[in-house]
Amino acid sequence: MNPIIAAAKLHLNKREFTMLVPLYCTALAAVLSALVSFLFLRAGSVPGSDAWVDSSRANPAMLWALAGYLGYLGVQSVATTFPFALTLGATRKSFTAGTLLWMLLMSAYLTAVLAVLAFIEVKTGHWFSGFYIFDVNLLGAGDLSRLIPTVFLATLTLLSAGGVFAAAWVRYGSLGPVVLASGIGIVLIIAAIILVPSAAEIFAGFRLGWLAIAALAVIAMSSVGTWQHLRPAIVR
């Protein structure tokens, strides 16, 4: 078997952990969102009204439900699986590439799940009740052409970012993630200081495509950083 595919399958062997828990998180967020909507309905809000739609589409539940777990999933994909993969004969290069392949598959999987749920929600008139759960601004407001790249890139960004922090821990111990986070923070602060005088112009000309470019940059740098950390790492 191709060593890259073998490394990806190693991650996929944790079926419940990788495939089902994200569904549990999504289901919990959906239930809580429906309960909140029902609460506002009982309080006198009118489903379908402009105020109802605007407030419902501002729901960030999916972000809070999935972001933390996806980041953790990225961390464990390197921190716990890397030593085990080496004992099975994987090379550092094949493990890094296989992990990236697994992250791409996970991103596509979660994107497909949320796209199907959003499609069903819109086609059923928001679950026959006017409740907005997946047709929210965070997921493209019912527009699949926005939801698909948003969820895919966001998921891949969180997984790859978690992976590079885990790789820093594998390489340098507990000091690695601290130094990495501090370095990123310093760079962001310096960038903010430089850009503050032009903030008004930047926001006026802001385009959603910029977020996609930023996500691709983070994914690329995280992937390269993971490889650079793992290449000389000593397995403890």
UniProtKB/TrEMBL annotation:
Keywords: Membrane, Transmembrane, Transmembrane helix. It comes from the Bacteria. The chain crosses the membrane at residues 21-41, 61-88, 100-120, 151-172, 178-196, 208-230. This is Uncharacterized protein.
